[in-house]
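We modelled the chain as a single entity of 304 amino acids. Its sequence is:
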Amino acid sequence: MDLLSYLVIAILIGVSPAIFFLWFFYRRDKWEREPRRLVLTIFLFGLVPAIIVAVVLEEIVGIFITSAAFGAVIAAPIIEEVTLWGVVRWRAYNRKEFNEPLDGLVYGAAAALGFAALENVLYLLPYGGFTSAFLGEALIRGLFSVPGHALFTGTSCFFLGGAKFMPKGLRRYAVMFGGLVLAMVLHATWNSIPTFVAPFGDAAGLLAMIVFAAIAWLLVANWINVGLNRSPFNPTRRKPLPSAVLGARVSKVIPPADFTAPPRTQGAARSAEARFCPRCGAPLGATARFCPECGTPIRTETGQ
């Protein structure tokens, strides 16, 4: 096989897992999916600008701290998660399409998968041929490393999405940056497996990766479940079953356009002097623009 053919096939193999998982996370929003063009834009920002920024910063850190373990377990998780979180915060957070907490997870996964796609290709190309080592690397990275990036950044940006619809204050920023710290911890734990577990044997390293990946997937499945339940576009607001998170068909119901319609819950009987969410009945602050529980936009008396 000539070099050009190898490069083309290796790139396709490296990019394919990211494309599949991009489709997978995009489809998790059952109620109001994001514009494909915007999702693709976030993916491309993760593919090129984010990875350039991350590589440059990691190289600068490497000049001062030469420890490989420090770079993998401390520097890389912090730099990569902050960079990808910044892509979503900069390019998607303030757009009108970002209108429910689950959108943060979708955009976060898109940015991370763009990053993971290029990173995967850069790991595979140096093999120079389709050897058993190449195939093993492609399999492990396609099953674990590529979706792992989406799980980590998806977590931080899900919390970012939740914070967007909270009243301004300390709790809002605690949620916003707490999710980012959690993503760094997850990423650092994953990166520590080759350093601290793999030396005990390939079987130990593989088992640690499987256990950690299962825990990370369960966490993100829970974020998806919570996001579907709290979406203002979910007219039933019933807790989705695990099958809904894993991809079962859920009938899509278009919500009423007027969010100021009289509430269908016990909130209708409450005093008109108090402010309550018209959809779920949760109490609202005096200046709240979104419900802190379900994210429903709240129209003021002036209609703005």
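As a brief sanity check on the tokenised model: The chain has two domains: 3-246, 256-304. The chain is about 65% helix and 0% strand.
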